[in-house]
Each structure stands twice: as structure tokens, then as C-alpha cells.
Write a structure and sequence with these properties.
259 residues; alpha/beta; Rossmann fold; Dihydrodipicolinate Reductase, domain 2; 2 domains; six-stranded parallel β-sheet; five-stranded mixed β-sheet; 7 helices; 11 strands
Length: 259
């Protein structure tokens, strides 16, 4: 019989954190051992010996939390957005130091899994978009969220746009046509040459549209998350998978069989 994994949740008082706590409580083979929020200290004592720590906090706190969790000797699953190449690079360096020390001590390496989105529909939409990107002259991303979200564009939209840009570069495509000369601020954020637009509207949860265009045709990939419960299967999968994946993994698609 496989070992029960003990889990701690950071941001446990938030909407996503509270949903994660309920999901872990109800999941077979997982035990919720700690619920931490903004006023709690992230260290070995506060984490109560957790094997895996799930972070759903805020962009300003998440990187520091990951470093603290690694120092406490636990794996990390991160759903908080706001990451960039520099912050991911610092985590990779920290992981290298920690895992070298663990290897010298005969301990298995720690893993960090950062997922811009845990929803299966969102992961599939991102995967389909990356596959479609090489076939279209134009591509843009629209993300739609509730107005309490503190960062824009969303991590999901940035991840999607970056994947589209990589696919276009690999295919040798030229820059997308855009004759805009004035009002460029209305064209949204530029993520590696792909325009990303953010909508904040009461009543929304998390939604994304990826638009592709050629002369005479259009492809729209639309993904909608209506309830935070839809993210939980992905979170639980990540918790179970991260313990066997030393180092940094970015994107839930990397633990799904999407070949």
C-alpha cells in the first residue's frame, strides 16, 4: 500500500486555499496536517512535518514561501501566479543547493511544481493553442477573471502566449501583422510578441479565449471555469506527482499524458 502523503496549505483562509483544504480532507491517501495563512510563519514547525505544501497565496509572498518550504524539507505545489523567468530561476538555483545537500545526506530530492492553471480544460486549451499556433498568421489571447484578482495578465494567459510564441518561432513565422500607430496601450500586454488582453468583471471566475486568424478563417479556443472545485483534480494530481519529480516543473501539462 502506498504511503499516505501529509499536506499543508498556505493561504488556507482564501477562496482557493479553503477549497484545497476540503479537497485534501476528502481525498484518499492524503492527510491535511496544517492550514497556514498570512499571519503564520512558514517553517518546519508551522508546516507540521508535511510532505507536500500547496501554495495559494499572493504574488508578493509566493516566492519567499517556496524558498522557506524547501528549507523546511518539503515538496511544493504552487498555484499562485506572478512568476517570471527571474523568480523561477532563483527557485531552480535554490533547489539545486537544497537537493545537493540532500543527495549528500542520502535523501531523495525535492520538487516544485508551478502550474498557471490546474483546470483540465485550461491545460487542454493551452496545449491545443500551442499546436495550432504554427498554422496561423495572427494570434491573440483574452483572459477574463473576477475583479478581486490582483495580477494581470493572468499566469494562464502569459503561459499560453509564451507557448504560442515558442511554437511560432520554431516554425520560423514572421512577426504578426499589426499596423497600429496610435493608442498602442489599447492593444493589451505584449508577451513575447503575442498580445494579451485582461478583462475584470464581477460574476466571472476564470476564463480564456485564444483567437487565431488567417485570411478568410478564424479559430477560437474557449475555456471556462465556473467553480473553483474544477481545479481540485489537477491540484490533487500535482500533490501526488511532485514527490517523484525532483527539480522544477512548470505547467500541469508536464504531468499529464498529452502526447
Amino acid at each position: 500500500m502506498s504511503k499516505t502523503l501529509s499536506v499543508a496549505v498556505l493561504g488556507a483562509a482564501g477562496r482557493m486555499g479553503a477549497t484545497v483544504c476540503r479537497a485534501v480532507d476528502e481525498a484518499a491517501g492524503l492527510e491535511l496536517v496544517a492550514r497556514l495563512d498570512a499571519t503564520d510563519t512558514v517553517d518546519a514547525a508551522g508546516l507540521a512535518g508535511a510532505d507536500v505544501v500547496v501554495d495559494f497565496t499572493v504574488p508578493a509572498a509566493t516566492e519567499g514561501n517556496v524558498h522557506a518550504v524547501l528549507d523546511a524539507g518539503a515538496h511544493v505545489v504552487v498555484g499562485t501566479t506572478g512568476w517570471d523567468d527571474e523568480s523561477r530561476g532563483r527557485v531552480t538555483e535554490h533547489l539545486g543547493r537544497v537537493n545537493a545537500e540532500r543527495d549528500a545526506a542520502g535523501q531523495s530530492g525535492l520538487g516544485v511544481l508551478i502550474a498557471p492553471n490546474f483546470g483540465l480544460s485550461a491545460v487542454l486549451a493551452m496545449t491545443f493553442a500551442a499546436k495550432a499556433a504554427r498554422y496561423f498568421e495572427s494570434a491573440e489571447v483574452v483572459e477574463l477573471h473576477h475583479p478581486d484578482k490582483v495580477d494581470a495578465p493572468s499566469g494562464t494567459a502569459r503561459h499560453t502566449a509564451a507557448a504560442i510564441a515558442r511554437a511560432r518561432a520554431e516554425a520560423g513565422l514572421a512577426a504578426m501583422p499589426d499596423a497600429t500607430e496610435s493608442g498602442i496601450e489599447a492593444r493589451g500586454a505584449d508577451v513575447d510578441g503575442v498580445r494579451v488582453h485582461a478583462v475584470r468583471l464581477r460574476g466571472l471566475v476564470a476564463h480564456e479565449e485564444i483567437l487565431f486568424g488567417n485570411v478568410g478563417e478564424q479559430l477560437v479556443i474557449r475555456q471556462d471555469s465556473f467553480d473553483r472545485a474544477s481545479f481540485m483534480p489537477g491540484v490533487l494530481l500535482a500533490v501526488r506527482e511532485v514527490v517523484s519529480r525532483p527539480g522544477l516543473t512548470v505547467g500541469l501539462e508536464n504531468v499529464l499524458d498529452l502526447s
